[in-house]
Amino acid sequence: MADAMTTASSAAPARTFIVPGDPLRPPDTHVDVRTQELQINMGPQHPSTHGVLRVAIWVDGEIVTRADPDIGYLHRCAEKIGESVTNIQYVPYTDRYDYLAAMNNNLGYCLAVERIAEVEVPERAQYIRTIAVELNRIASHLMAVGTYGLDVGAFTPFFYAFREREEILRILEWICGARLTYNFIRIGGVMRDAPEGWIPDIQKFLDLFESRLDEFNDLLTHNHIFVQRTANVGVITLEDALGYGITGPMLRGSGLRYDLRREAPYLLYDRFEFDVPIGTGIKGQVGDCWDRYWVRILEMRESVRIVRQAITQMPAGEIMAKNVRHLAFKSKPGEGYLGTENPRGELGYYLISEGQPNSYRSRIRAPSFCNLSILGKLLPGTMLADAVAIIGSTDIVLGEVDR
Amino acid sequence: MTAQEIKQALEKDGLGAGLTLFEGPKDPALVVPREQLLKVARHLRDARHLAFDLLIMVTGTHMIEKRDAKGVVLREPGFELIYHVRSVKNRALVAFKVKLPIGDPTVDSVSSIWPAADWHERETFDLVGITFKGHPDLRRILLPDDWEGHPLRKDYAYPKAYRDINLEVDPPWPTP
Amino acid sequence: MDALISLFRDSWHWAAGTSFGVALVLAVLFVVGFISVWAMFGVWLERKASADFQSRLGPMEVGPHGLLQSLADGLKLAFKEDLVPKDADRFLFVFAPAVAFCGAFAAFVAIPFSPAFNVIDVDLGVFFVVAITAIGVIGVLMAGWSSNNKWSLYGAMREAAQLVSYEIPSALALMIPVLVTGSLGLRSIVEFQCMPSDGDLKAASLVYLSPNGWLAFYSPWTLVAFVVYYVASLAECKRAPFDLPEAESELVAGFHTEYSGLRFSFFFLEEYGMMFVVSAVATAVFLGGWQPLPWLSVNFATLGIVGHLLAAGVFLAKTIFLVWVQIWLRWTLPRLRVDQVMVMGYKYLIPITLVALTMMACYAAYGIRYVPGIG
Questions:
Q1: Smallest CA–CA separation between C250 and chain A, in Å?
Q2: Closest CA to C265 of C133, C66, C105, C75
């Protein structure tokens, strides 16, 4: 972390301008104008950086000339801890990385461990996992679009998005007792079976949600000023997106229909019918901020479809595998990578196990970490207000960027 | 495409020098010798039938020496870098490893092939201590710039102090 | 204030010379008191209205329905630590809120609350208001510069560009009613709107029809002028969608980032004061001042002091409605980017206003009326 707030003290080279059309001067006269670039820090305390992110920006007036994201303010030695505690003990830690989609983090880690340790998860547990994960996806996207409105200056849609998010958090609290860091999906199954009335409550919420989403669209999505702020801003071409390892709604916003739930299905996603929305440049260019935002809105609808199908297909049965206790003492050796589709992109866990109850190496592939790396290329040339809109559209969570 | 098929495709394209297969358990991976890394990586990205264009992750691990009960060396100490790359067109995932000796943890940077590797390699340098030749801007990313040591090494000694913060304090819970 | 002076002169003959001074002091105290109470009410209105739009309740604890909340907040701000940043330009930092506040405060002098309730019946009312409120720009610039904070400087720079740019369409839009009525004085513009058909305002009956009606509906060009003036005044008050200078989510708090305590409350007073001033000017010039309905007037002067209070009540009701619409717009619309603000001001509002001004001049020259005269 370099020194904060360094002023542009080094003398910038003088820029020369050609004075156009002045009849008293001969053509091609160069005028010496000495200007300086201003270096400002966006963050680490800043209302729009979605966490403790510092972006050192060099600006020339209102235009950004260089941007350098500086992360590490929330580094909590996750991977080192993964080597010290046992796999079973590590599950609550995974909640804290992407704290807005904690169920997905739990799921990724448990699936990775179950693959290496060869644990069979009962079917009812898998359905409950799917419902929890998709509800969390809706909650995470609501947070993303609500705070994106805040970044752009619309204060009211945030409250409307959070009204629905409250409902989901209440539903998830009912089943596992926590609203944000659930520790619900465990190795071998889930923590607790669906209580009486949980499923009808979810159905009631889903019936209400579609109309609320239409209301939200009327308020923010098609608002002329919002479109002016986000369309044609921060365009990521498909080539850049693939080169920088971007996944999730950011990649789909650039026009590629790539979703890990379809490409490499895990956890029963091959049994459900759902579409994968992409950005098509309705309001501006393909791959601009509005497209990424629109993909998130559409994905919420698809998650509703998946939850409805999961509810109808869910069988009765066990919720936890039988032979999980022994993982506290020993495991099977092996190494493997498993990628899951987080609301922000591809969340992957690469585990090296040597038969001990704790992993030899547990590496987390955080989607926000990779999505953030394009900022150094994307921000130069935009205006400062656009920089805020672009950072908001990447939908990062610093917990998983820094781990 | 399995790792075996990718290895065969690479051998057919003339890049099979020194290529071995790590069988598992669990996920097989290609083992690429250090000198061949850039050529193999570029071919994996550019070849039509391979088209591995989405770099997922670059992981570095410090491998300590492993001996069995009789003292026979099962694994030399060293570093291991594993790259995971996806192919969007072929719906495949390839994992390839590069093994580095303990005294010389340097390797070529693939950031010219996949720009995503830029930050992953910075993180590996920061936490594990592997140096990447040809990297445009190799500096620490998660830890402060003046931190000493590489924490994810197995022989990492926790520092006693950082700048003027004393780190050898008693924890706030009762200790024996 | 003339009424106050005559009041004093009649009752205290021996203090005839000092009556002007006393009246002046009383008037100033009244205005300061009015602004303070208005700011408290304005903050309460904003919090309740925004809560309503966001499906929550707003302040409910302090006082019935949170009416005393602003008082509690004011007391809290008064007790806060007075911070001046270490490397800030101390004189400018301390002086800036006062300058900004004076810009809004001084404009209250010209507002005609009722036929007799105005501090000074300024002949150049419109010109005076536009000029005096421009002083606020200097205050904001001083605040941004002296804070020794790059984000504050950003807010100040954006604000200077925005406010100065939007003064042009704002003043031009006000020129259209001036063209119609032939007078710059705010009271004369209201009297034009209340003018009975025979032209004698003082001898009119209690309730009568006035052919001119509200200037907003007098002619399509004055309607355009009203809309343009309202939008430009949103930019003058730094309200959303033009709230770049204090864009919370981008610049932390813009030019007043480093201010705390009572100094910060001065900026707040200035913001709500400006909101009132521009709404009051819009009411007086376009919405008929104390005229209850567009073509229906009430001769309040015949009812004595009660009549004047009723007139002031009508005026205040319209002004508060316009302020409420400003609040409504703030909490609904996102924020425009700085170049979009400039485009809107220069490429849209100014040409529209110029066309409206030209057309209004043609209408006036050829005697075209939008609404056929009544009587």
A1: 6
A2: C75
